[in-house]
UniProtKB/TrEMBL annotation:
InterPro entries: MIR_dom_sf, MIR_motif. The chain crosses the membrane at residues 70-93. It comes from Escallonia herrerae. PROSITE patterns: MIR (PS50919). The keyword Repeat applies. Residues 105-159, 167-224, 216-270 form the MIR domain. It comes from the Eukaryota. The lineage of its organism: Eukaryota, Viridiplantae, Streptophyta, Embryophyta, Tracheophyta. This is MIR domain-containing protein. Residues 8-18 have a biased composition (Basic and acidic residues). PANTHER family: GH21273P (PTHR46809:SF2), STROMAL CELL-DERIVED FACTOR 2-LIKE PROTEIN (PTHR46809). Keywords: Membrane, Repeat, Signal, Transmembrane, Transmembrane helix.
Length: 279
């Protein structure tokens, strides 16, 4: 009877049975705790130590700013040091260049690599591997407005058959040759008409062993000179007339047989070879 009565009672039991948690800490139970009881549980037993450890401030929060960020400060100091070194090197180099190109009286010797500046317009004598579309069809020569251009360097060399050596001075009336450093061709003039003004054309032609000559008068840096072509008698000349297409912004360089204010040039930027016998 006792077994049968229990079976019938379970059949009539419509209320779901509640799970009873095993004995032990109530923190493992899934039952919802009353707020006041939950606070008691969190503040008792092993949870008390955990709670205090989490609320304790990190040790580095009490350190000074420079100790917390020492690595960033170190990187900043290193960056400033590198910048200061780069600025010092740049300014020193700029000072050396200014001293070399701005001092009067530096003699131009054979072997010097320089730029020729047109006195009136301040353009540099320039050439590049682009032929004229008329006249001789040889490599064109122009005036270039910018200073930092590698196609404006010329090597000063003596005439063919001369005994002059690198480092020898260039006296008044000496016959010289100007070789374009980039293309290895030589400054040249002839009777073809220049493209814009119709004067004598100036071009570059030949190679290392083939050139003609020009005459230069007394040559020192920043000294006003004229360069006269031996064969045609024309003076190296330029003006403010500019090309508009292939060499847009560059001005015409030509040759005229008269001495004019527009055919005065000066030795400007360059690498000047020390004069032989000078200290």
């Amino acid at each position: 009877r006792r077994v049968k009565a229990r079976a019938r009672r379970s059949d009539l039991d419509t209320e779901p049975r509640r799970a009873v948690a095993p004995p032990g800490p109530e923190t493992l139970s899934r039952r919802k705790l009353h707020p006041s009881h939950a606070r008691q549980v969190l503040n008792s037993g092993p949870n008390r130590a955990v709670n205090k450890q989490q609320s304790r401030p990190a040790p580095h929060q009490n350190l000074p700013f420079y100790q917390q960020n020492w690595f960033l400060i170190l990187l900043l100091v290193m960056a400033l040091s590198c910048f200061a070194l780069a600025a010092f090197v740049f300014l020193s180099l700029d000072f050396e260049i200014s001293a070399a190109t701005g001092s009067e009286g530096v003699e131009v010797s054979y072997g010097t690599v320089l730029k020729l500046m047109h006195e009136k317009t301040k353009f540099r004598l320039h050439s590049h591997d682009v032929p004229y579309g008329s006249g001789s069809g040889q490599q064109s020569v122009t005036g270039f407005p910018l200073v930092d251009d590698s196609n404006s360097y010329w090597i000063v060399k003596p005439e063919l058959g001369s005994s002059a050596k690198q480092g020898d001075t260039i006296g008044s009336g000496a016959i010289i040759r100007l070789q374009h450093m980039r293309t290895r061709r030589w400054l040249h003039s002839h009777l073809h008409l220049s493209p814009i003004s119709g004067n004598l054309e100036v071009s570059c032609f030949g190679e290392d062993a083939v050139s003609d000559a020009g005459t230069g008068k007394a040559w020192k840096q920043d000294q006003r000179i004229r360069l006269q072509h031996v064969d045609t008698g024309g003076y190296l000349h330029s003006h403010d007339k500019k090309y508009s297409r292939t060499a847009g912004g560059q001005q015409e360089v030509c040759s005229v047989r008269e001495k004019r204010a527009d055919n005065v040039w000066m030795a400007a930027e360059g690498v000047y070879i020390p004069v032989n016998g000078s200290k």
